[in-house]
Amino acid sequence: MNIHKVTFILLIIGGLNWGLEAFNYGVGNYLPDTVSMIIYLLVAASAIYEIYAHKKLCRDCAPQEPAA
Q1: Given CA atoms 31, 36, 38, 42 in this order, what sign does their dihedral have?
Q2: How far apart are CA 36 and CA 14, in angstroms?
Q3: Inter-helix orientation angle 3-21/33-57, to 10°
Q4: How many separate domains does the chain show?
Q5: Cα 31 to Cα 34, 46, 47, 53, distances in angstroms
Q6: Which of 35, 46, 60, 61 is most enclosed, with most CB atoms within 10 A?
Q7: Keyword Membrane on this protein (predicted)?
Q8: Tens digits of residue pLDDT in 32-68
């Protein structure tokens, strides 16, 4: 499993958690403080990584050669 897939999965988890926060049901509230802090840091690191790496890794965003 490459780092792009791991970061994408963590971003999905983070996005779903933000959606749950809208209904006052954040998953981090039910985990020990250290565990939730580690998960939040991993999600933040994933977002930072994707900001820099997305354009190179995404087929739709990567520069494409013109068709001959």
Answers
A1: positive
A2: 11
A3: 120
A4: 1
A5: 8, 20, 21, 30
A6: 46
A7: yes
A8: 889 888 888 988 888 888 888 777 767 666 666 666 5
